[in-house]
Amino acid sequence: MKIVVAIGGSILLKDYDSTRFKQYSEILKELTEEHELFIVVGGGKPAREYISVVRDFGAGEAQCDDIGIEVTRINAKLLLSALGDVAYQRVPHNFQEALEFASSGKIIVMGGTEPAHSTDAVSAILAEYVHADKLINLTSVDGMYTKDPNKYDDAELVSEITATDLLDFLNGKDMKAGTYEFFDTTAVQMIKRSNLETVIANGNEPENLIKAINGEDIGTKVINE
Fold first, then answer.
1. Looking at the chain, which terminus has fewer C-beta neighbours within 10 angstroms, N or C?
2. Would the annotation count 113 as a binding residue?
3. What is the CATH number of the domain that holds 82?
4. Does residue 117 have a known ligand-binding role?
5. Does residue 43 have a known ligand-binding role?
6. pLDDT for residue 172
7. Which residue ranges in the chain fall short of pLDDT 50?
8. Does the annotation place 32 within a ligand binding site?
9. CA 37, 211, 82, 45 torsion: positive or negative?
10. Domain count of the chain?
11. What is the pTM of this model?
12. pLDDT recorded at residue 151
């Protein structure tokens, strides 16, 4: 299968060390023996901190986004270092470059592309662009909940939801640069129009990536009507 995997920056850089990069590199090396892989890496806490600095200067959201994008590309380079020869050792700056680099037969790792597109959105657009079979979004929670599980004990995990209902759920959420919501509306719109098989799961357990690809009952599946 051709698979796009989005990995949140907070997953890879939770403790500011190499551990999680090494864990994911081993799993990705194993998966690339059977699948064509495209990885999109988020900015995480470093991106939010840099964005906070530049916002204090009075920068607009587009400029804040641009700073965040640079951080995602640094994170992508860190994962490339961990992957070594199995990955193409350049970070694509756009979808055409990602497709061109994929002709190498190696894993492609990228970050953001342009302002107003979160890495959630980038991963969904990339999946459509390269005609991926599946999109896996690895985040810091187990999937979509009825409310924020970090704040509410009665939050319930939603195992399956249509793209339309997910859009309704996200409607009106704050989408400023560096803010984190469960998922990005642009990403869901792309998933809906592409009829893209999507799984959102907890990336703090790297093995969940294998489970999601194998179709095990994990996280939240975004389905189309």
1. C
2. yes
3. 3.40.1160.10
4. yes
5. yes
6. 60
7. 175-180
8. no
9. positive
10. 1
11. 0.92
12. 83
